[in-house]
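I am hoping you can look over what I have pasted underneath with an eye to the fold:
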Amino acid sequence: MTRRERRELDTEAYREWNGGYRSYDLVKEASIALGLILALCVVLTILFSSPNEKPSTVQSWARSDPVDFVTTATTELDGSSGTAGYGPPYNHASGGQHVWFIHLQKWLGVSHPVDTAKDFVLAPLRSIAGQPALQAAVTAYESASAKQQTAWTGAYEKNLTKATAGANGSISVPDGGYGPLPTMMSGLLRFAQGGGLDGVLLTSPQFYQTDYTKPLLFMADGSVLSDRAHAEHLLGRQWGIMNETGSYPGQVWLWLYTFWYQIKPFSTSANADILVMGLMGVLSLALVLIPFIPGIRDVPRWIPLYRLIWRDHYRSVYG
């Protein structure tokens, strides 16, 4: 039997149907299923509430690890934090990730400007009323030269590695030439522990205050989010993109995307995200173009596994 005859036989076999027929209302069935699932979701939500973990906040971070909070705030003040040097869309500190001539971050520009010293430290401190000593310390810092500011923050950061947390939530740092920083950071720490810093960082021109970019960036520069992600197996080296809170190993169908982060050069590259995105784009395009790629598109004819899968059909048609 020639290929043409086999193809005509396949077409004829699909056309003929000698079995019975019965009506089926797909829309009705789908509507009933949707209604039942919706009712079940409402009932389960009322009975069990949300299964999510409690969110991390600046307040909970400042209370649980005040030393890390103050250390992070100091890096935000002197511009040495990850956010301060990130580049677009937050600032112009760098060109962002790129591959070859593609500089997506730089091309899109700064769409969400963040000045870490002003937004995370100085402006929140200025919002605290009724503390003249604190405001005098902020003024003294702002009035100092850049060289003097760097000397203060450098000395303070160095000795923060020896800092200890007190029972009342305060921290103790060995004496040194820190200028107004101890007063400023103590004030910011108390402000954060009382929940005020969360509110200040959420303030935006929008009517609904739902932009969590600044508090998340601030916490990401510290260890609170990375420590929590590690506990939940969400870090990149833990195949984090596949996982979700309370579910391990998570969505294993994402392994192909996450896999590249585990090997070089992606695992050691500062441009890992855009490199992986580019590679996955090429692979996805190749998958879409398989029917048009000579050789690859003929593999099913050379290795007819489909005949094994649909063996009952081919047995009934060809005998």
